[in-house]
Automatic annotation (TrEMBL), chain A:
Belongs to the ABC transporter superfamily. Keywords: ATP-binding, Nucleotide-binding, Transport. Residues 8-236 form the ABC transporter domain. This is ABC-2 type transport system ATP-binding protein. GO terms for molecular function: ATP binding; ATP hydrolysis activity. It comes from Paranoxybacillus vitaminiphilus.
UniProtKB/TrEMBL annotation, chain B:
Transmembrane segments: none annotated. It comes from Paranoxybacillus vitaminiphilus. One of its GO terms (molecular function) is phosphatidylcholine lysophospholipase activity. Residues 60-248 form the SGNH hydrolase-type esterase domain. This is Lysophospholipase L1-like esterase.
UniProtKB/TrEMBL annotation, chain C:
It comes from Paranoxybacillus vitaminiphilus. Keywords: Membrane, Transmembrane, Transmembrane helix. Signal peptide: none annotated. This is ABC-2 type transport system permease protein. One of its GO terms (molecular function) is ABC-type transporter activity. PANTHER family: BACITRACIN TRANSPORT PERMEASE PROTEIN BCRB (PTHR37305:SF2), INTEGRAL MEMBRANE PROTEIN-RELATED (PTHR37305).
Length: 305, 267, 326
């Protein structure tokens, strides 16, 4: 099933800590140039999974292939393919941004010197790059973190909650930057978040995680489209409800409106039936659910913020 | 700029690592694999005797009395003698107190074999000494558990040693006046004072006789100083003098010492 | 590998650790120089002589008097006994063990700081080498490079060794330069005695031989270096095991101070000699001081230290390469 252009392949990944199984058999693949989202509440196992993907934590079992290299067996070659920020962008505060980048360049044998300048320009830190990191704002640290991750021209970029703590402008910039990297530079990006709005706006595909398992993987459009709803503004409500219930399932009722699933072929028929029965249909419109609705549905109401 | 600092430090660190490693190697070689070859040369008196500091040199020899045990100021009679002499002369008084608590005559004999002790005696202008108290009072608890035989044995040993001591000192330094401070009876106040006093008097007599055999060795009596009101002059151990007692001895010795003209203070 | 070590050296230098240590050393050396000057002056005043032979003789007499007083602890008596014999030996062979001069001060400073001060300085460097990366989160960046974990740890270990060497170099240089201003800079070629060995209360002088002070100093600094490396390695291990630099320092501090206290009172607790912290005073074997526990020798102490250091090194590497990083 492994796709020809799959850059990151995970097969039946598990992690036990003590007796507790934190990650319970994840399998997924990432394709070149896509932005893949990990969505789940706090404690779902996103960070743990990412730590295993970058080699910080050893999986109890399972396999991780990065651009075809097995992380376990060919650690250096596999890790060479990725750039990452795990949790917060922690750099050496007593060094300047530039020195931090130099530090990491020295650890990889084949990065040309001018690469530092390139990534600094890419993340737009030219003005402050020679200041100590301890004087940076969180947004600047986040950018420096990304610069650091991009130094080795990775094929896969792994970012754990990259927008955490950023202001709305910062979040938008980050989102655009990630899309830019995927579309223009052809990177595969794996982003985790507990914020649905964010994932919804920047990802091509999403894996929904809860309690160490992936509940669902699909493209954002498909996940949403499948759940498209129709909202009926009708009078009298009770009679309309009885009639619609004969045809489909009423999934909600909200201040004088009824909500049903969307079915492109049948909606007009249902409307005709209502009108014939003398019900006043003042408004019919379709609505895409937010991922939030979806998420609550899928995880059966687990809290999320 | 900054990179250079790091490089300099790193270079120094590498250099010093080598240096310390060599030191460690040397230490291992020297400490574990040293082959004893020629033994280290001992000092000889001829090589060191000449170096002499200016001033008036007092060398004090003997036991706890010379050490000053019982005087809380730590001076002892030696200190009071030195203080007194300092008022009489322009020269710096230099005291070398070589007395050891509990020392007996045999101990002093062997102490006098040490080159450095000999050197100091050689350079001395006067010599103060007490010896014999421990031979007498501690040899078989002589006075409390009186045994004539043991006493006589102790006295014979002591007198032989005393002769050796005087002879050695005179040999090393023919000129310096030696003040041999004789014994007092610390038990003067106790019930058998009569017996003990007789023993001490006899002991002092024999010692003075010995001293008389050598030029410039003066036996200084202290018996009379402690005869009346002995407890006023004794330390709480009822054996050693206290500050006042030492002052008495010091005054007596100091009064015996005069300076040659020109050294005297004229103020 | 050179790049990795260079990275570590940059971090150590930029954290200003070496600078702070050099400053502490300078202050302490100045303090000790002053104290030593005062001591020399007060001895001269007290004895009324500047003649070292007379001074040493007086010290011998003082020691003999102390030995004759009651209530001395057994350890103290033994210590005095050995020192007495040694001083007498120096005197009998007409060698001044404390001839004034910067090299003599260096030697005394090294001998007195080998079991506490120098280990403390080494600890300051080694304690946060790994733990600060863990607590600061930068370990995640280090370990997601295409470099094997053991190489990263080795680079840190080498940086630790280099820093230790550098600290000793600054200690030597600073103590020479600062004390030299007061005591004069000469005295490298003065003869000293070494090769004493202690059997019970007796000082064995069969292997005693003369050696010039510069050689003696080099030997002592070599031993100080060895001790520092062992202390550094132990600290390094704790730094690998723990995230909190403060905890690492706390544990090492407790061990070192307890060692300093223990070595004055363990003579009846025989098996304490296998603790690393009572074996730190290697220079005492060179100068011929009595060891804290009967039967301890330079070879024994070096072996004990080496075993501790090696064990710590092995544990460090196993834990660091195997462990999950959170
Ligand atoms: N070192 C650890 N030891 C034990 N349990 C852990 C450890 N790290 C994380 N966990 C547990 O694993 C689960 C997943 O955590 P995490 O991967 O951090 O979740 P997320 O990043 O999705 O918020 C949580 O229930 C957490 O309590
Ligand atoms: Mg997380």
């Amino acid at each position: 099933m492994t796709n020809g252009n799959a850059t990151l392949v995970v097969k039946d990944l598990r992690k036990k800590i003590g007796k507790k199984e934190i990650i319970k058999g994840l399998s997924f693949e990432l394709k070149k140039g896509e932005v893949f989202g990990f969505l789940g509440p706090n404690g779902a196992g996103k960070t743990t999974t990412i730590r295993m993907l970058v080699g910080l934590v050893k999986p109890t079992s399972g396999q991780i292939l990065l651009c075809g290299y097995d992380l376990h067996r060919e650690f250096s070659k596999a890790v060479r393919q990725i750039g990452c920020i795990v949790e917060n962008p922690e750099l050496y505060p007593y060094l300047t941004g530039w020195e931090n980048l130099e530090h990491f360049v020295r650890m990889v044998p084949d990065i040309p010197k001018n690469r530092i300048k390139e990534v600094v320009e890419l993340v737009g830190l030219q003005n402050r790059i020679h200041d100590r990191v301890s004087t940076y704002s969180l947004g600047m640290r986040q950018r420096l973190g990304i610069a650091q991750a991009l130094l080795g021209k990775p094929k896969i970029l792994i970012l754990d909650e990259p927008t955490n703590g950023l202001d709305p402008v910062g979040i938008r910039e980050m989102r655009e930057f990630i899309r830019f990297l995927a579309e223009k530079e052809g990177l595969t990006v794996l982003v985790s978040s507990h914020l649905l709005s964010e994932i919804q706006l920047m990802c091509d595909r999403v894996a929904i995680m809860a309690k160490g398992e992936i509940i669902r993987i699909d493209t954002v459009e498909y996940l949403l489209a499948e759940q498209e709803r129709v909202i009926w503004k009708v009078e009298p409500l009770e009679k309309a409800k009885a009639l619609l219930e004969e045809e489909t399932v009423i999934i909600g009722e909200e201040d004088g409106t009824l909500i049903t699933h969307y079915d492109a072929e049948k909606v007009s028929l249902w409307n005709e039936k209502l009108v014939k029965a003398g019900i006043k249909v003042s408004e019919i419109h379709t609505k895409l659910p937010t991922l939030e609705d979806l998420f609550i549905e899928l995880t059966e109401g687990e809290t999320i913020d | 700029m900054k990179v250079n600092v790091v490089k300099i430090i790193a270079a120094l660190a590498i250099f010093s690592s080598g240096l310390w490693m060599a030191g460690l190697g040397l230490a291992i070689k020297d400490q574990f694999f040293y082959e004893a070859s020629s033994p280290v040369k001992k000092i000889s008196l001829e090589n060191v005797a000449e170096e002499k500091e200016d001033g008036f040199h007092i060398v004090a020899l003997g036991d706890s009395l010379t050490r000053g045990t019982g005087d809380e100021s730590g001076k002892g009679y030696v200190g009071y003698v030195a203080d007194e002499l300092q008022t009489k002369t322009k020269q710096t008084i230099r005291v070398k107190n070589l007395a050891i608590k509990g020392q007996r005559s045999a101990g002093l004999v062997s102490q006098l074999q040490q080159i450095e002790v000999q050197r100091q005696i050689k350079q001395a202008d006067i010599i103060l000494m007490t010896i014999g108290g421990n031979d007498l009072f501690q040899s078989g608890e002589a006075l409390s558990n009186f045994s004539l035989e043991r006493m006589n044995q102790a006295k014979a040993d002591y007198l032989r040693n005393l002769h050796t001591i005087f002879k050695t000192i005179r040999h090393l330094n023919p000129d310096a006046v030696v003040f041999y401070i004789s014994l007092y009876n610390p038990f003067n106040d106790l019930t058998d004072a009569k017996t003990t006093s007789a023993v001490v008097r006899e002991w002092n007599f024999q010692s003075a006789e010995a001293a008389a055999n050598y030029p410039n060795i003066i036996a200084v009596p202290t018996f009379d100083l402690f005869e009346l009101n002995v407890n006023d002059y004794l330390y709480s151990d009822k054996f050693h003098p206290n500050k006042e007692g030492y002052k008495l001895i010091g005054e007596r010795v100091a009064s015996l010492i005069t300076f040659t003209e020109g050294d005297e203070k004229n103020d | 590998m050179i790049n990795l070590v260079y990275n570590e050296m940059i971090k150590i230098v930029r954290k200003k650790r070496l600078l702070i240590i050099a400053a502490i050393i300078a202050v302490l050396v100045a303090l000790f120089t002053y104290a030593q000057l005062k001591r020399v002056q007060s001895i001269q005043e007290q004895l009324g002589t500047t003649d070292w032979r007379a001074q040493l003789q007086q010290q011998i007499i003082d020691t003999q008097n102390r030995l004759n007083s009651s209530g001395l602890s057994e350890e103290w008596r033994k210590f005095l006994q050995i020192r007495l014999q040694q001083q007498q030996y120096y005197l009998d062979h007409d060698i001044n063990p404390s001839a004034p001069g910067a090299p003599t001060f260096m030697r005394m400073f090294a001998e007195n700081s080998i079991d506490l001060f120098i280990p403390l300085m080494v600890m300051v460097i080694a304690a946060d080498l790994v733990s600060s990366e863990a607590s600061g989160g930068t370990i995640k960046l280090l370990l997601t490079r295409p470099v094997k974990r053991w190489k990263i740890l080795l680079s840190k270990y080498i940086a630790m060794i280099l820093s230790v060497s550098f600290i000793l170099l600054s200690l030597g240089a600073l103590s020479y330069l600062i004390s030299g201003v007061v005591f004069g800079f000469s005295g490298w070629t003065l003869p000293l005695l070494t090769g004493f060995s202690v059997h019970g209360e007796e000082l064995d002088t069969a292997n005693v031989h003369l050696i010039s002070q510069w050689k003696y100093l080099l030997m002592e600094f070599g031993l100080v270096w060895f001790v520092s490396l062992v202390v550094g390695t132990l600290t390094f291990m704790l730094s690998v095991l723990m995230r909190s630099t403060a905890a690492v320092m706390g544990i090492m501090l407790a061990a070192l101070i307890s060692g300093a206290i223990l070595s004055t009172m363990v003579s009846s607790w025989e098996s304490a000699k296998y603790l690393f912290m009572v074996n730190l005073r290697l220079t005492d074997y060179v100068s011929g001081m009595a060891p804290p526990i009967n039967g301890m020798t330079l070879g024994f102490s070096m072996t004990v230290l080496a075993v501790w250091g090696l064990a710590a090194l092995i544990i460090s590497f196993i834990v660091f390469t195997k462990r999950d990083v959170y």
